[in-house]
Amino acid sequence: MSRKTVITCALTGSFDTLSKNPAVPVSPKAIAQSAIEAAQAGAAVVHIHVRDPETAKPSMDLALYREVVERIRERDGDVILNLTTGAGGRYVPGEPDPAQAGPGTSLASPEVRTRHVTALRPEICTLDVATMNFGEHTFLNTPAHLRAMAARIAEAGTRPEIEVFDLGQIELAKHLIAEGHLARPPLFQLCLGIPWGAPATPETLLQMRDRLPPDAVWSAFGIARAEFPMVALAATAGGHVRVGLEDNLYLSRGQLAPSNAALVEKAATLLSLLDCAPATPTEARALFGLAPR
Questions:
Q1: N or C: which end of the chain has fewer CB within 10 A?
Q2: CA dist., res. 126 & res. 129, Å (int)
């Protein structure tokens, strides 16, 4: 029997990727359409950021999240929605005083970062247990803010997907679990290849997997050219997988991905060669410990 593997599709992200691949969806209508197509291609979960339709820059606008969620639910009530709470974690030191926030800072309170979760109550949302250099800026998530966000997520009845980018962040997540702020069994996402987090290598993935709590359910992804090698490794190492235009813009070397669905289709084909089968949303709910629909 084929092992059921959950495919998550990360639809758009928050970086300046539209200039590199015009297939990246921007408007709520385009993001929702891309989610539907990804689900039809085999994704059981869609991971959602929103962007300002006019500028394509990242947004935290509740109205945009609401429109995306409503558009998806109108057409597909089964696919699992996973909303980001990573927005609002960016800090750029100002000049000449680094204690003052500089241009590009989006740092926001736990309440602001989770208000769309409280309002829309998705089945899953991310919780980035990570403070790190993230490219050229700082991604800032203090333990106190994480505890506050976890409480608001729990009040919404949403399951947090704990995103970790390095080994020490797993240890912090385990501490929050031991304190009772994150429920068991925990759901983890291993995020690999992001500058300057853990590299997307087999050794790193396996070491991070081995540091997870014994009862953890986990997925992993690699960015850019590491996307599909990490799909193969995560699936064969007992985890679930993530692909999408947030993480990688190419279908193969030199060939831009025409859609999120194309990336999901390639992941599903790869899984089939490994004797794995994409989980349906119903199967994914059972695997992820979500309430059945």
A1: N
A2: 9
